């Protein structure tokens, strides 16, 4: 049955009538083209029209006047090309829809074979004949394909060809209906392309996507969604309720974490509540050892779309960036910014804080001697030792170079006791020897301590006062700790002014040397002189070495100053008579700097002084710095031919061990022993030192002989040489020359 339920008023008016169409020129019989719609079916729709217009089975016999009605109905349909073919495929009639679709008027096409609507290649393949044959054999042929208009353009056609037979079953022709489906085909192609693009987009998204309807049932999810959450395709089918989906996801998370699965899914942030009044919410969750960001947007329809992204690596990178911004990359300790922030928070909360400023002693020597890699290892070792001696609640930071700071977590009355105890533990821990690149190194640490609010109510003031206390600790001999006290700021300001003056003095050459003679007691004569530096300050006058040598060492100026002293002493000594020696004190800092042997050799070469006439004096503190490196340097100096003297013997910690390891040419007994040489216990120590020197082949010099009464004791105990005010105070070079001119009578007096 061919039902014409067509859109439009004319179609609705004709919808209740059944039409039987007698065909002029065709064998007797009729074909029903339409019949009434069932009662209650409602007005015809496009869907009903498309579905039923193709039904061309036989209908009941026609009623009178149906031909007129046929013309009114069929000829008025403009959306469909409806026409008849004879058994050979010749067009026998033509409606307005056919004219509109194909461009032919009835008088142009009636009598032509319908194959003219096919493209040439299809005609060549015999497609029109095959299609009729199908309709003839099976009663119906239906297909889609390209068809031609009169002007040669083509359109995509949906074609139905139905065989029409009489009551005896004889073929009387074909009814053919064609509809232009180009627009629908294009729409379908666009939809298909969009669908494919959507599938591709979903498949290649780095995020998982999940769409839920208003009833919270799954509409779709992509493969990435299932992959991130560990779901199989069968576990997330369309229509799955959200609660069921969540149960499966949680089960998967617990499986990933094992027995501790309760912590496998936990929120890392507070989500905004979901609801139609909310546009979106974002929450981060810990899922099976990973971090997932879940973003949900509520759509106006009540449905929702969620994206899930694995941000574990992003958070790891962000965490690393944050760590680098707040930590020292070499040691892993907090940096200055992090320390200042914590200090300010603590002061804001409690108004009190105690901090320790640390500076490593002799670190630069290790760095310069063994290289920066060894220095880095040293800093890392110190950082680890600091972690071990402080409490977990204390904050340790490295603020640059060899400087560290510690913030105690217990401000208040107990803070001072805690600071003192921690400072002592730090001094012990940092001072332990360590191996670096095959060498044994030992450093110390100076510590300054300040507590707020008494030493400062803000971070800047507290930091500055702890730094001042640190300088005080360094000035006190290093490797110790010092609490900030009122008045230190003024002393530091004075020290800073002195440092500026000292720098200018080194550049301007404001120094001169005085020489203190030493007397050979076995063959009474001046054996040599010790060179002692003086600073001719433009405002303060003559300043002794005790006022500025430690500052020169601390600031590194001793390297330039010591080089000048060495050159000037050699130059002056080259003018002295006979084999008189000149003794020059060498600072520990000079041993730490490379090139000491070169400087000594250059001074000898320039002055022309014989090497055996130069005596280098070192104290035991020099050997305590880095004994292996210092001893190696001493041996190299010995190869130059110079003499090596151990100064201030008896005041150090391990004098005897160093005497065993290096053959000193001279041992100078510290003046503190000579001042008490009349006491039996002191006299016994002096005798022991003299005996030790005799066994080692070293000359013994008594320093600080100031009275006539001390001289017999010094002779009696076996000292071969004496030096002190009894013989002469330190003299300027012109005074020394006059002194040497009177040496014979002075020697006889001695």
From TrEMBL:
<feature type="domain" description="EAL">
    <location>
        <begin position="495"/>
        <end position="744"/>
    </location>
</feature>
<feature type="compositionally biased region" description="Low complexity">
    <location>
        <begin position="34"/>
        <end position="46"/>
    </location>
</feature>
<dbReference type="Pfam" id="PF00990">
    <property type="entry name" value="GGDEF"/>
</dbReference>
<dbReference type="Pfam" id="PF00563">
    <property type="entry name" value="EAL"/>
</dbReference>
<feature type="domain" description="PAC">
    <location>
        <begin position="141"/>
        <end position="193"/>
    </location>
</feature>
<dbReference type="InterPro" id="IPR052155">
    <property type="entry name" value="Biofilm_reg_signaling"/>
</dbReference>
<feature type="domain" description="PAS">
    <location>
        <begin position="66"/>
        <end position="119"/>
    </location>
</feature>
<dbReference type="InterPro" id="IPR029787">
    <property type="entry name" value="Nucleotide_cyclase"/>
</dbReference>
<feature type="region of interest" description="Disordered">
    <location>
        <begin position="1"/>
        <end position="51"/>
    </location>
</feature>
<dbReference type="InterPro" id="IPR035919">
    <property type="entry name" value="EAL_sf"/>
</dbReference>
<dbReference type="InterPro" id="IPR043128">
    <property type="entry name" value="Rev_trsase/Diguanyl_cyclase"/>
</dbReference>
<dbReference type="InterPro" id="IPR000700">
    <property type="entry name" value="PAS-assoc_C"/>
</dbReference>
<dbReference type="InterPro" id="IPR001610">
    <property type="entry name" value="PAC"/>
</dbReference>
<dbReference type="InterPro" id="IPR001633">
    <property type="entry name" value="EAL_dom"/>
</dbReference>
<dbReference type="GO" id="GO:0003824">
    <property type="term" value="F:catalytic activity"/>
</dbReference>
<dbReference type="InterPro" id="IPR035965">
    <property type="entry name" value="PAS-like_dom_sf"/>
</dbReference>
<dbReference type="Pfam" id="PF13426">
    <property type="entry name" value="PAS_9"/>
</dbReference>
<dbReference type="Pfam" id="PF12860">
    <property type="entry name" value="PAS_7"/>
</dbReference>
<dbReference type="InterPro" id="IPR000160">
    <property type="entry name" value="GGDEF_dom"/>
</dbReference>
<protein>
    <submittedName>
        <fullName>EAL domain-containing protein</fullName>
    </submittedName>
</protein>
<feature type="domain" description="GGDEF">
    <location>
        <begin position="351"/>
        <end position="486"/>
    </location>
</feature>
<dbReference type="InterPro" id="IPR000014">
    <property type="entry name" value="PAS"/>
</dbReference>
